[in-house]
Amino acid sequence: MNLWADFHTHTRYSHGTGTVRQNVEAAVKKGLSAIGISEHGPANIGIGTVLDDFARMRDEVEHLKGIYTGISILLGCEANIISLDGDLDIPEKVLNELDYVMAGLHPMVWTESLRDGYHLLVENMLQRHVESLKEKVLRQNTIALMRAIENHKIAIITHPGLHLPVDTASLALAAVKCGTALEINAGHGYMTVEYVKIAKSYGVKFAIGSDAHRPADVGDLRRGIEIAEKAGLTEDDIINAAEIRR
Ligand SMILES: [Zn+2]
Ligand SMILES: [Zn+2]
């Protein structure tokens, strides 16, 4: 399976170790045709990107486009879903300036309200030990994700099921309706083979991303490819696979 792009990479603007330029250089070396810079939104506690930095990254990306002409350099993001209503931590005005939007659930974020924090953070922690909470938390997480993709133009949902459990079937249905892809995260190994199989049965598209936090990992998509192949996906199922590009 051949992949032509890595849409999920981080830099020093959040808690990655490399610069935008180093990520691009790494992508060129790996032979990719496209690289996306996708920083965390500002709500990630301690590591979020300052909103003003999206304009700085845009300047860098535009500058690098003139130097690395053999690769498409895109500016995206990995926004946080910060409420049960599916609100994102990056305002629409900033999202509109990006080439694509990814969003996901993370366990350590500043939520929109204390109530959202209780449902999305505290209850998610508690459900690991409290059996009776599991179903409620699964439903809440899934609703937050579904509302996010229904209310925003999101290209890819990152690592569904990582840390915060999700009802894959409901998410996949909403994703198909909104034209959103679900990510197989090569760094974390989520979605798992089992969940990819469920999501595929609803006809959803997938994206494989490295979630690289250092340049050396940019374009390292092997673990994601392994999951995809075990789940029986073909290149047609994956938005950054060779077949789709033509
Ligand atoms: Zn993430
Ligand atoms: Zn990430």
Describe this entry's structure for a reader.
- The structure is a single chain.
- The protein is of the alpha/beta class and about 250 residues long.
- It has one domain (about 5-245): Metal-dependent hydrolases (TIM Barrel, Alpha-Beta Barrel), CATH 3.20.20.
- The protein contains nine helices and seven strands; from the N terminus they run βαβαβαβααβαβαβαα.
- It has helices at about 20-30, 55-65, 90-95, 115-125, 135-150, 170-180, 195-200, 220-230, 240-245; strands spanning about 5, 35-40, 70-80, 100-105, 155, 180-185, 205-210.
- The protein has a seven-stranded parallel β-sheet with strand order 1-2-3-4-5-6-7.
- β1, α1 (about 20-30) and β2 form a beta-alpha-beta unit.
- α4 crosses α5 (about 135-150) and α5 packs parallel to α6 (about 170-180).
- The mean pLDDT is about 95.
- One zinc ion binds next to loops.
